[in-house]
Amino acid sequence: MWDYSEKVLDHYRNPRNVGSIEDADAIGEAGSLACGDSLKIYLKIDNGIVTDAKFQTFGCGSAVASSSILTEMIIGKPIEEVRKITNKDIADALDGLPPEKMHCSVMGHEALEDALKHYFKEEAAQQEKIVCTCFNVTEKQIWDAIKENGLTTVEEVTNYTKAGGGCGRCKGIIKDILDTYNKKTAEESKMTSTQMVLKVNKIIETVIAPELEKDGGGIELVDVSGNKVMVKLYGRCSSCKNSLVTLKTFVETTLRDKVSKDIEVVQV
């Protein structure tokens, strides 16, 4: 049994803004009945503001909840702000979704994107390559899901897009897309020494230091040499017998997650 948040259950049991808008300024669709889930979203836009939004969906409770909260997220918002919403924003607004149901938030995002393309009269790109014929998932949809959600395995891609969840013959292609994305990301992530120092210092100042300050401690970046980051602890952190644990389990882990997995933190 999947573990659903109270917000998911609330929006499933009491969905907001269900229905259609006859004179909608934009209509977007995603999914299909053949795939098991489908969504149609209607937008009313006045002077660049989304004044109303309604949806019609066929799918599970997570699909209903994702569609419901999406309409609440966009009503009253400037269209340019609405364009920045991602599927992760939808899931976060619901206090999370089970991994197997993340494709519902992706469907909401895709329907919103489709509506905005029609509103701005953006021409459709050339015919997109279908990777998963069982669920009609394109290469671009898989690529976008990997990029926006940090997906690393074929199973995660299936959870977010349904691709590979049918006959499974496309799993090899999905793995190739993951490998290509990881290679491209690795090439783009190579930083100069100056960029490395700036990024490490920013994470220390905005993420790590505020947490240490809550316990009366502090941290200062001393130097960066290759992947070795030298820091100085002060306040309560400098005299704490668990300072080494703090360095490794919090400081080093945070920097590895946000800057580079090869970082080693050393106290000086």
Low-confidence stretches: none
The percent of residues in helical segments reads: 40-55%
What is the architecture of the largest domain at the second tier of CATH? Alpha-Beta Complex
Query: What's the overall geometry?
Result: globular
**Which class do the helix and strand fractions yield?**
alpha+beta
Instruction: Give the quaternary arrangement of the chains.
Output: single chain
Radius of gyration: 22 Å
Task: Give the neighbour order of strands across the main sheet.
Answer: 1-2-3
Biggest sheet, in brief?
Answer: 3 strands, antiparallel
The number of helices is: 11
Q: What is the residue-mean pLDDT, rounded to a whole number? A: 88
> Which CATH class of the largest domain is shown?
Alpha Beta
Structural domains: how many: 3
- Percent range for β-strand residues: 15-25%
State the separation between the terminal residues, measured CA to CA: 49 Å
